[in-house]
Amino acid sequence: MENYENLTIKVEKLSKSFKEVQAVNDLSFHIKKGEIYGLLGPNGAGKTTTIKLILGLLEPEVGNISVLGLDPEKNEIEIKNQVGYVSEEPLIYKSLTPKELFNFIASIRKLDGDKTTPKLAQYLESLSAVEYYERLISTLSRGNKQKIQIIAAIMHDPEILIMDEPLTGLDAKSVKVVKEILELHTNRGGAVLFSTHIMEIAEDICDRIGIINQGKMVAEGTMETLKQSVSAMGENLDLEDIFLKLTEQDDSINHIIENLRKTMNL
Ligand SMILES: Nc1ncnc2c1ncn2[C@@H]1O[C@H](COP(=O)(O)OP(=O)(O)OP(=O)(O)O)[C@@H](O)[C@H]1O
């Protein structure tokens, strides 16, 4: 029996469409305290739409969402105080330096400078971003912009981190540092919603994974239980095969490879 007091995010029977596109279709899942939950799905599966609904940036057509017991449609500001969000799009405040951006965030969030300054220095150093601190964000590389976006999302110590494809563009060392940040965050009771289209990343980082395709949940569980259900199917499939199968990409990938071989004369 689930202990509902332990839940940070609860999504029930959520649906959202854009004209003829059903982006999210009767989706339900929950995220517990201390858990990294991965939304795994191919391009266009509905991951970003789900995240925007949870943040109150989009209105659901049907369904319920609770974030720390709050309704995103009614409590957008309160939820923003408890959540750190890394969006899929690159950072918007391009005409600022990271220093100006962090000062701006600290002032709107009314953060204590004595606590925030050393924390920021540590994050910048850990992510090898000290030298970019006073450069215009518009002049930074994609990966360095992403590091600044991640620091901006965690600097107020939110209870929940919602990260939409956060590792895009990061080098191997920074990926390791971000993974460590997520682990430390969950060790102290925080929760993470993490979206990715890359199965290995979900496997490496997430405690539980929800595989979505065309807005629908097609499988959910720990990596262990997902692997067990794969072997229970009796076929000689690895997890990558099952991901492609569940997301209906297995036939099309074989077809694409066959056509590519013909085109490239192999
Ligand atoms: N504002 C919008 N207007 C129209 N269609 C939209 C809009 N936002 C999303 N969609 C459509 O909804 C579907 C789900 O998109 P979404 O961005 O949620 O997918 P995703 O899983 O995050 O994909 P990706 O991995 O490529 O980022 C797609 O078909 C997309 O084209």
From TrEMBL:
Keywords: ATP-binding, Nucleotide-binding, Transport. Residues 9-239 form the ABC transporter domain. The keyword Glycoprotein does not apply. PROSITE patterns: ABC_TRANSPORTER_2 (PS50893). GO terms for molecular function: ATP binding; ATP hydrolysis activity. InterPro entries: AAA+_ATPase (IPR003593), ABC_transporter-like_ATP-bd (IPR003439), ABC_Transporter_VariousFunc (IPR051782), P-loop_NTPase (IPR027417). The keyword Transport applies. PANTHER family: ABC TRANSPORTER ATP-BINDING PROTEIN ALBC-RELATED (PTHR42939). This is ABC transporter ATP-binding protein. It comes from Promethearchaeum syntrophicum.
